[in-house]
Each structure stands twice: as structure tokens, then as C-alpha cells.
Amino acid sequence: MVQLVHSVIVFCTSSMVAEISTIHTRHGGGSVRSNVVCHFWMLGKCNRNPCRFMHRELPHPNVYQRTSKQSNVLADIQSLKSSNQVITYRPSKRPNVRNSLASATEDGGSEYKYTRESFSSGTDIEADNVKKIRESSKCSNTSDLTAEGDASEDKNVKKSSRKACEDWMSNDCVKGDGCQFLHSWFVGDWFSLLTKLDGHTEAVSGVALPSGSDKLYSGSSDGTVRVWDCHTGQLTRVLSFGDEIGSLISEGPWIFVGLRNAVKAWNIVTAAEYNLNGPVGQVYAMAVAFDVLFAGTQDGVILAWKGNNENPNLFEPATSLKGHTGAVICLTVGKKRLYSGSTDNTIRVWDVDNLRCIHTRNGHADAVMSLVCWNEYLLSCSLDRTIKVWAATEDENIEVIYTHEEEYGAIAFCGIYDKEAKPVLLCSCNDNSVHLYGLPSFNERGRIFSKGEVRTMETGPNGIFFTGDGAGMLNVWKIAESHVIVPQVA
């Protein structure tokens, strides 16, 4: 039995229910007739704008709504389900599990001293605040998940002004202070925008900051990896791979580039390069753990290569993990478990020791877009407009213990810590925004806006984090004041 080290007190008060009810978006807007829920909205068919009835109660579990204007992500996923068309990108989720590849070079070079902060570190930062997260399952999805001592929503995150002006983003807004929308790239006072790195012509599909390096690497659907100087922000090199890049991660001195039908391994210290063949279709997600490189592919297979310093080729094919019936588009690792999400709407749990599937979970009603481990919990997000929190059961299975509703489909995850070492979850949605949630309360602590959907996010040292969007823009952010580095746990 996996012991839960953290828990959450859930206050199902009437005032909280009322507060959260205002967060659930109504299509129509405007005034509503009190205590009357729209019947057509419950069936997912209401197209009134405004609608005089409430769009506030939970719809039937098999019915969820989308925006009238579907995003590129949504269109890509739907087309992939019905054909062999390739998704134009795929964000990856990098675990933080130590292994020999983090220090391996062609000649057995020295290990890097830099340690990346880990969102899934397992530290007891919130031991005093978090009480019985399992109790959340006793409350309805319209109630908040709140911990004692957590701050409420930041004062500057106003419900009435959570949309950036699209004309302002294009330098075309003439309304000035009279504009009803925000003239800002973000809302929140505990982080700031350092710089915008402009150069990619298509969606950013991966960001990597290798250990000990002063260079930042970004991969894109435009087929290039761009290398940026971390001191000046200047572009220093452009590497063309001649094909769409579906994912990009780093481990120690290694850069791994997910391509169509291949993975490129490149050592930035020795300049050694390896072509890892075997994938069928685009490689959308990669993860490294316990000396093994995992790659999720378009045909639903997860390929694994074992790192071996004694082998001239260094990477030995280990196995193929089969079971998903749709493309594997996200991977993460936690406590000797590999978690994979797919367009088949399922999450699979794999034992890293024997490389076998031990559980299949069907909690989502649409593609599982991203996964992240937080202490003893697994968080998943989907185009079905939900974020789900999973926890271990007595029989070492996992079950959903809390569901957070989103207004739009959720695309990608990233976890950071604020200056007080409190965990913050970044969740990008297909309305071109990133929501920043304090955990475990899910109180919104800020919002980031972009011209395109933010498709990949990554953390760096000293409170730095990165967001890359569908328009090819890579933004660098900084947490205000001193940042508490959380020690990594193997």
C-alpha cells in the first residue's frame, strides 16, 4: 500500500459552493433565472447567447461541451483519431528521476553539478497545510478543494478581466484605457516576463535547458532546433532536421529530439550523435528514467532504449510497450512507474522494473494531453475540460479523488514552486491562456496570455520557467524575489 504523505481538508460550505459556481462558465452570459438550470445546456445543446437559465450545474457525465470555435489542437486530435494524419506538435513532460545518462558522455565524462528543481520531489513542504485529499471525493465537483492556511485567489486576478486584448497583442488596439480587455501578457504579481524569444515559424514543441549548459534549446514543428544564449538571449545556432519535431527533452548533456520515425540523440559535450530507429510515425513524447529512454509514438507504442556506456552504440533497444490504441502524446515517471496518456482517452501505468502494463485507467472522455506527478499523486489533463487528481488505493491501483473543471480543453502541464516554496500548477488551455493554480487548493494565482495555444512548458534554475506557443514564440518567465530550490529526490 502506498502511504499518502499529504492530505487536504475539503470545506463543502454553502458559501464555497456559491463561489465555485460562479467559476463554471455559462455560454450565454448575462442575467439568469435563479434556481433554474438550462435543460438544453444539461444535454450539451444550448446555443443561446445570452441564456436566461443557469449554466452552472454539472452536465451528464457523458456530455461535455466545446467552444464553438475549435482550436488547432482539438482539430489535430480529432483528425488523428479518424485518420493517420500527424498532429502538428506534441509537448513532452520531463520527469526528474536520476540515472546514469544524466552524466554519461562518449568517454564517460564527469557528472554535472547542476540539479534541476523537481515538482515531483516528494518533499514535505505542505505537511502542515494538507489534510486528507481523499475526502474530496465525498464532495461534488462544484466544491473547491481547499487547504488550511492557503491564500485565496490573488487580488489582481479578477474574474471580470481574464482575457487579453487580441488587437493589443498585434499592436492594433486603438481603445487604450477604454478597452474592456487586458493590455498585458499576464496577470499576477509574483512572477514576471523576462524576455520573448522570437524565431520559430511554427509551434514550439519542446524546450530543454541541459545540466551545466548556458544554452537553451527549443524544438519546433518548423523542423529546427534553435540554440539561445542564456546570458544575452541571442540566437547562437539553428539546427535543421529536415522534418517536423514532435518533442524535445534533455537529460544531463544529452538532447533527445523526437522526429517522424526516429529519435535523434545528441551529446552537447562530445558532439556524439545517434539515430534511434524503430518509431512508427511521429514521436510526440519522451521521458528518461532509470537509464532508460522512453518514446511515445503515433502508432500507440512506447519504445524503450537502455543506456549502456560499454556499448559502442550506447543506446540498446530494450522493448516495445504496447496497449494504447491511439497515439501516445504524454509521458511522465514517478516512483518506478511510467504513466502514459493517449488519444484513446486512457492512462496506462507501466512497471519500470519489468516494463509491463499494470493498470489502465479510463477517467477521461477525450484525449489525455499531459501528466505530472506531485508527491504521491498523479495529475492529468484532457481536452474533455478537466484536470483529474489520482491517488493510490490499498491494492496499489490508482483512482480519481478530485476533478477540477476547466472552461476550455486543457493541453499541457508544468509544475513550479513560488518564492515561499508552495507548489503551483501551470495548465495551458486551448483559449491561448495558461492558468496558474496553487496546490492543493486549485485557487487561481495568475494567468498567462499568448497569441497561440501554449503547447509546451518547462522549468529552469533559480525560478525560471518557459512557455512555447503555437505561433512559434518562446517566452522566459521569472518568479519574483528569491526562489526556494526544492532538493531532488531520487
Q: Can you put this structure into words, describing what you see?
A:
With 490 residues, this protein is mainly β. Helix content is 6%, strand content 38%. It has four helices and 27 strands. Strand 8 (254-267) and strand 9 form a beta hairpin. The longest helix has 11 residues, at 72-82. The protein is globular. Residues 1-35, 56-71, 84-98, 105-118, 121-160 and 482-490 have low confidence and may be disordered.
The number of distinct helices, counting runs of at least 4 residues, comes to 4
Proportion of strand residues: 35-45%
Low-confidence stretches: 1-35, 56-71, 84-98, 105-118, 121-160, 482-490
Largest sheet: 6 strands, antiparallel
Strand order of the largest sheet: 7-8-9-10-11-12
Keywords:
metal-binding, six-stranded antiparallel β-sheet, 27 strands, disordered C terminus, mainly beta, WD40_rpt, 490 residues
Summarize the structure.
The chain is 6% helix and 38% strand. It is mainly β. Strands 7-8-9-10-11-12 form a 6-stranded antiparallel beta sheet, with no helix packed on it.
Secondary structure topology:
Layout: H1 14-23, H2 39-42, H3 72-82, H4 166-169, E1 186-187, E2 191-198, E3 204-208, E4 215-220, E5 224-229, E6 235-240, E7 247-251, E8 254-267, E9 273-289, E10 292-297, E11 302-307, E12 315-321, E13 328-333, E14 337-342, E15 347-351, E16 356-361, E17 368-374, E18 377-382, E19 386-392, E20 398-405, E21 410-417, E22 423-429, E23 433-438, E24 443-449, E25 454-459, E26 464-469, E27 473-479
Organism: Manihot esculenta
Domain C3H1-type: 33-58, 159-186
Pfam families: WD40
